[in-house]
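User: Here's a chain of 195 residues. Predict its fold as tokens.
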Amino acid sequence: MAAAGATAPDVDVEKASAAGAPAQGGGEAAGPGVVGAVVRRWRAQDLLDRAGSVLRAAAWALSLLAFLVMACNEHGDWKQFDRYEEYRYIVAIGLLAFVYTTLQLVRHGVRLTGGQDLQPKTGLIVDFAGDQVTAYLLMSALSAAIPITNRMREGADNVFTDSSAASISMAFFAFVCLALAALVSGFKLAKQTYI
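Assistant: Prediction complete.
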């Protein structure tokens, strides 16, 4: 037991060392020991949460652009997007991806502001499965629309085909964002110890 008159040294929780003692371990930001490991894990978890939210926000914007550009692609006669099944498909999937990412962003926003979220295991499964399914649907839609756009561009390169190509490009970038978000959520799901 310590003497009654002795005071405990000030402890820096993030560096896991006493104020008067030099930090060990080469000056790591979180320091050595159990506290340092916990702080590093919290920082990594926070980074993964933010990365998933940023990727979903980018997918939200890109899927909205893909939907709007194709939905506004009406220039009369044969230059109407709704005359082509492939273009209607990309509009539907762009809208679906927009709604999914909107709901995910609202859910993550509520969680980050201290609100109640789904159970941790359920939330991770919803993130992973939803990201994957939506990403695959986006890839399917843009894969269906590319051949018809290429055939049209061989005959006539005009504002209709340019708008179609722009919508397809935005759908592709939304796919990339959701595929990366699926990787992040898959990593978080694999790191859970209670599955």
